[in-house]
Amino acid sequence: MQELTDVVFEVDDDDSDDGDDDDDAEGETLPAHRAFLAACSEHFRILFTSTFAESRPASANNPIKVPVKGYSSQCVKLVLGKWCLHPHVFIMK
């Protein structure tokens, strides 16, 4: 569903201490959908609907780019994939 993507998280893994020199060290781009993230998270709702630059109109051809520094791509994937995409995992406990 790449055509529905309107935001990409640009993860900068340069600060990782794992000593691994793979492609993730240069960063990774993680696509997402603003409406879905905003529906799942108050943080994303504010980010994408207020006066922040991330609230401007966007499309798959011209997505919002959100730089993420200080966190590994694995951490960002966990937050986006587990917390936002599967919030029931935490609610059911």
Explain what this protein looks like in three dimensions.
Helix content is 33%, strand content 18%. With 93 residues, it is an alpha+beta fold. Strands 2-1-3 form a three-stranded mixed β-sheet.
Quick recap of the structure?
The chain has 4 helices and 3 strands. By secondary structure, the protein is α+β, with helices and mostly antiparallel strands. The chain has one domain: Potassium Channel Kv1.1, Chain A (2-Layer Sandwich).
Topology at a glance:
Layout: E1 7-12, E2 28-32, H1 34-40, H2 42-49, E3 64-69, H3 73-84, H4 88-91
Parallel strand pairs: 1-3
Antiparallel strand pairs: 1-2
Helix pairs in contact: 1-2
List keywords for this structure.
single chain, about 90 residues, alpha+beta, Potassium Channel Kv1.1, Chain A, three-stranded mixed β-sheet, 4 helices, about 35% helix, about 20% strand, disordered C terminus
Largest sheet: 3 strands, mixed
The geometry reads as: globular
- Total separate domains: 1
Give the name of the CATH architecture: 2-Layer Sandwich
Radius of gyration: 14 Å
Helix and strand content put the structural class at: alpha+beta
Q: Examine the coordinates and then state which fold CATH places here, giving the name of the CATH topology.
A: Potassium Channel Kv1.1, Chain A
